[in-house]
Amino acid sequence: MIIYEDEKATVVFSNNSTSWGSFFYEASEDALRVDVTTHSIPHTELLTFDFIDVDATSTTAALNWEKKQIPFKIEVDVTNIVMADIKNKLKSQLGFNRQTWENAARFALNNGGDLEVALVWVNNTIEGQFYSQKTFNNLALKGQILNKQGKKEAYAKLMDEASAMANMNQLNNLGYQMLGAKDYDLALKYFKQNVANNPENANVHDSLGEGYKTIGDNKNAIKSFKKSLSLNPPANVKANSEKLLKELGVL
What we know:
The protein contains ten helices and five strands, in the order βββββαααααααααα.
């Protein structure tokens, strides 16, 4: 490290990891030089490295010594590194498990990975392999990938297929997923489907009420929340229905 008087420093990374300190330093062996701003800190007796400002893809390494801190940022291309690692693992024994392929596709979807690769991975879980099995989870996952690719028609068709295989909780979660994606037509469709399948369940009426409230259909929202309360709901569902009715000015 080269320290200057104006709170500036240059951090030098060398290709030579065996020479001791700066005594045998040769500039020709530099791998990288980074100019950084130093900071004044309380006295630190021992030379210390801390890792601060840690996030999903980077951290700041800070050398602290005496009354000076010299920070430098380290960034890692996490998504591409993990994607490459996943591709290798899928060729190993782990690749004989359907769940492994689903998890791989989900990682790519949620972390900015290659969506075409994610589509291949999720398709392997659905058909064509000895471990393949079409399920609500992998159909819904494929639908999310198609939606992120902008293939709206294929996405809607696949989500309808997934909804037909869903149990009550899965269908409810699917409705909330559509609310989060602001696909209100599909959200209401799945909430209504769940009510039709489970007319005596308070939670599905509560969820339908949330769907109506989200789109501003307060009349039907109130009706759904009152229906939920009439079915002796569990405490958490009751509290939610009552809270939302208060927001609508009913209680």
